[in-house]
Amino acid sequence: MRNLEKVFESDNIIYVKLSKELVDDYLKMINDPDVMSTIVKNAKTYTYEEEIEWINSILEKDGKCYSMIEKETGEFIGNIEITDKGNKVGELGISITPEKQNKHYGTEGMKRMVEYGYSIGYEQLELNVFNTNQRGIKCYENAGFVIDGIGKDPDDYHMSHKTK
Fold first, then answer.
1. Contact indicator for 133, 97 with CB cutoff of 8 Å
2. What is the dihedral angle through the alpha carbons of 99, 6, 127, 146, rounded to the nearest 10 degrees?
3. Which domains does the chain have, with CATH numbers?
4. CA angle, corner 140, sides to 135 and 142, nearest 5?
5. C-alpha angle with apex 134: 147 to 77, nearest 5 degrees?
6. pLDDT tens, 129-158?
7. Is 1 helix (H, G, I), strand (E, B) or coil?
8. b/e map 13-31, b = 16+ CB within 10 Å
9. Side-by-side strand order, sheet with 76-86
10. How many Cβ atoms are within 10 Å of 79's Cβ, its own excluded?
11. Is-contact 14 71, C-beta < 8 A?
12. If 36 and its partner were Cys, which of 43, 94, 134, 143 is the partner (CB 3.0–4.6 Å)?
């Protein structure tokens, strides 16, 4: 593995702190139209400078955003994070590069992030998903989330983790 700082792992994934060493991987993923369509409503192209600024902002506040690295190959899978919503509630988010989709990394990553979230003190975990993102919804359901209402926009779903 490159010079990346490991935080924890699961069966097939190593979770590392965000790294400027991976900026090209981040840009390739976030600027992919298929990935973009599942995480933002108003797509834009991110620049190298914007991505470096984003990495720095997460690292400065010790954010809980991690890059997922495939154990077998050392290749970049995607990013996963927990954002603190206050009152011991964490909001999860994940993005996976197109080359690593449909390999069950999303479900494995979400299950491991749920374990991690509870282990660091969150009492409730939730997420927002576009209602058109059927692959994401299935992944989240496989990781123990249930749809429990309307999301941030009327055509999104809010999902909560059903057990601690």
1. no
2. 80
3. 6-161 (3.40.630.30)
4. 95
5. 105
6. 999 999 999 999 999 999 999 988 888 999
7. coil
8. bbbbbbbeebeebbbebbe
9. 6-9, 13-17, 64-70, 76-86, 89-96, 124-130, 156-161, 145-150
10. 23
11. yes
12. 43
* Structure-token match 């999303």, residue found: 106
pLDDT at 71 over 70: yes
Checking if the pLDDT of 34 tops 80, the result is yes
pLDDT digits (tens, 9 = 90+) for 100-140: 999 999 999 999 999 999 999 999 999 999 999 999 999 99
Strands (E), the chain: 6-9, 13-17, 64-70, 76-86, 89-96, 124-130, 145-150, 156-161
Q: Hey, what amino acid is at 60? A: E
